[in-house]
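Summary: Need help interpreting a holo structure output

Steps to reproduce:
1. Submit the protein chain below together with the SMILES for pyridoxal-5'-phosphate.
2. Request a joint structure prediction with the ligand placed.
3. Inspect the structure token block that comes back.

Expected: a single structure record containing both the chain and the bound molecule.
Actual: see attached output.

Input attached:
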Amino acid sequence: MQTLHEPPTRWAWAEIDTGALRRNTRAFKSLVGPRQRLCCVVKADAYGHGVANCAKVMHAAGADMFAVATVLEGVALREAGQKLPILLLSEPPQGAIDTLLEYDIMPSVYSPEFAWAYGERAAALGRVGKYHIAINTGMNRIGVHCTEVVDFRRSVDFHAGLECNGTFTHFATADDPDGWDHQLQCKRFTEAISALREAGFDPGIVHCDNTPGSVLNPAMHFDMIRAGIGLYGLQPCERTASVLPLEPVMSIRARVTHTCYPAMGEGVGYGFTYRVPRTRVEVCTLPIGYADGLPRVLSNRMDVLFRGERIRQIGNICMDQCMVAVSETSLRPTQEAEVGDLMTIVGRDGDAQITLDELARACGTINYELACGFGMRLEKIYV
Ligand SMILES: *Cc1c(COP(=O)(O)O)cnc(C)c1O
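--- attached output ---
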């Protein structure tokens, strides 16, 4: 057995490489100038990597602000001891206002009703409610329409309980920075910021670039970049990979919990979607399944690493377990695995590597979704 830190109660875990996380964070920090900020996006439990520990590493490596998707994610970050500003990337229900103020979480704002209620409550508590305005420049997800931002500020700015700390938009196609769609969003955002300034409004911290934008379109960095996926060492597209190399942070490991040699023709797993062929096959069970984020569509279509080599996953992936085959080959006539042997579902083992990108491609999705999935139930081990 390799000596690895691992959880005492389960032979499957997510290994989080804090050194890689630190270096990736520094790489993003070095993309911006000394007067610009790095906002680390840690929504969805830091893309499945565990927000409390990741935020500490990012803070030490140069983060200036954190962004979350839900109010409770912001609360978790505060309860983990984070003191940096926290930006909520959505406008929550008005019922969340007391929590925002109590935990010092800045909401994104785009409706006058929410702004008003937030300002009223803040003023009643003798506080000032900081917020960022979200501008819709073409993604059509959230935000004040780009032509209505000045009017929006006019309608809320007089409120003594409100303070605009920032103005931002989000890009739909930042992976194609030369494309017409992206150029149009950039133009609309730049014009909206100019219009605010001309009308005498201070936009606060101006920001729009996500990971691909930060890497591929530095002209749009403004006062802050909002990096997410890249911090975790995952590339949002092929183009960014050649500009900014990053180190994957998450590996997924498991140990064999059972082995057997079923006779030729016997099935493996629910529905017997795999049957043992003529050759002798050692069926090994790993205690990780689709409830741990290993997509069931990968059944019979993925490999895992064992002693630096690829072996096939066989049979339908179950909720909490899956099976792999250690087959005899002419090269390895007696390659046997034993209970307790280490296997790698994602990550490196010797010279071999399985990436989240490879798995994402095989199931027709993106690395973002797989990282979030693996974060949901597996224990995280920080190395
Ligand atoms: C998720 C998100 C980001 C981060 O995007 P990445 O592609 O992971 O860098 C930035 N801004 C907003 C508004 C987001 O929702």
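--- end attachment ---

Reviewer comment: Residues 41, 43, 89, 170, 210-211, 226-229, 236 surround pyridoxal-5'-phosphate (CB under 6 Å). The chain has two domains: 18-233, 250-382.
Status: needs-info
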